[in-house]
Design brief:
Blueprint: E1 4-11, H1 24-28, H2 31-42, H3 47-51, H4 57-69, E2 77-80, H5 95-101, E3 108-110, H6 118-124, E4 137-141, E5 144-149, H7 164-175, E6 182-186, H8 196-200, H9 206-214, E7 220-225, E8 233-236, E9 239-243, E10 251-253, E11 263-265, E12 270-277, E13 281-287
Parallel strand pairs: 1-2, 2-3, 5-6, 6-7, 7-9
Antiparallel strand pairs: 1-12, 4-5, 8-9, 10-11, 12-13
Helix pairs in contact: 7-9
The structure holds fe (ii) ion (FE2).
Fe (ii) ion binds near residues 83, 114 and 227.
Length: about 300
């Protein structure tokens, strides 16, 4: 019988609101993104509305934590694929969410999303050794390796990019300890998703990133990602990419274009339960009700 090596939860895009927020225009304001948002508004699409939770982020995220804690068995850790907070002004802002995230009762490993402050995430996982300029690191748990790479450090306009050095680091880490079960995580989806909006905010050198993940097939069990707030699984060249919902909002972006019909909100929060065994990896999607405003 297969031995269970790790049981963990994949979550993403909690988007806690900091008490002091960066001016997003200053942080991301390029002509490219300004033109994109103008195009959206001309088509009658309010991206803000699509991404706004019907309840405060703290309430929506607590519902996630409660749902995970209702599982009738213990988990080893939580893997968070980024956008932990939305544009915190500084690392201090992350101190405010520590008590909430401690509610999981197990270690939480964070990827860096485009809205995240690198130092803030380091404060949330002080025992994790990361690269200096990027939040690149490897989780080692009971013989399982999860290679986590920071796609936000070199990205622009909400998008992602890995530097040449990061691509080389990723290739090296995926090849290391070749007898151990291997998984990977990144905030941005490396592959194109067939939607103007999703692809605008993707990884600008995603083909290069995918080529690196390909080198780890067939040992690589999955690449977990976030950023797009919805359940999307993709398989290409033997690489399995798995995204999970955001607890705060789950816009549905229909592949094929960007239109008023192509974006709607469908309350459907959830998380992915992952069980890594000595023989294979199980993925189970778990849903729970979105908290309603009147219950707040
Ligand atoms: Fe993101």
């Amino acid at each position: 019988m297969a031995e269970i090596l790790a049981t963990f939860i994949h979550i993403s895009d909690t988007h806690f609101e900091p008490a002091i927020r960066l001016d997003q225009q200053a942080a991301y304001g390029s002509a490219r993104i300004a033109a994109f948002f103008k195009e959206l508004s001309e088509k009658g699409i309010d991206l803000g509305a699509a991404h706004r939770a019907s309840v405060p982020a703290e309430v929506a995220n607590q519902a996630l934590i409660d749902a995970v804690n209702e599982l009738p068995f213990p988990i080893d850790f939580v893997l968070h694929t980024g956008d932990v907070m939305t544009d915190a002004a500084d690392a201090d802002q992350y101190d405010a969410i520590k008590a909430t995230m401690d509610g999981f009762g197990v270690p939480v490993y964070y990827l860096r999303g485009n809205h995240d402050n690198r130092e803030g995430l380091r404060r949330l996982m002080p025992s994790v050794e990361t690269a200096t300029d990027t939040l690149d690191y490897v989780i080692e748990h009971n013989g399982v390796r999860i290679v986590c790479v920071d796609s936000a450090a070199n990205g622009v306009d909400h998008g992602g990019r890995l530097s040449d050095e990061q691509l080389e680091w990723l290739r090296t880490q995926l090849a290391a300890d070749s007898e151990k079960p291997l998984l990977a995580a990144i905030h941005h989806p490396p592959l194109l998703l067939g939607s103007d909006m999703m692809d605008f905010f993707g990884v600008t050198n995603g083909a290069d990133v995918h080529d690196v993940y390909k080198t780890a097939v067939p040992r690589l069990q999955a690449v977990f990602f976030g950023h797009i707030h919805q359940v999307v699984d993709m398989m290409r060249d033997g690489v399995y990419y798995s995204c999970v919902q955001s607890p705060i909002s789950q816009p549905v972006l229909i592949p094929g274009g960007l239109s008023a019909d192509g974006l709607h909100h469908e309350p459907n929060p959830g998380f992915t339960l992952v069980v890594v065994t000595s023989e294979q990896t199980y993925f189970r999607r778990v849903n729970y009700p979105m908290p309603m405003p009147e219950a707040v």
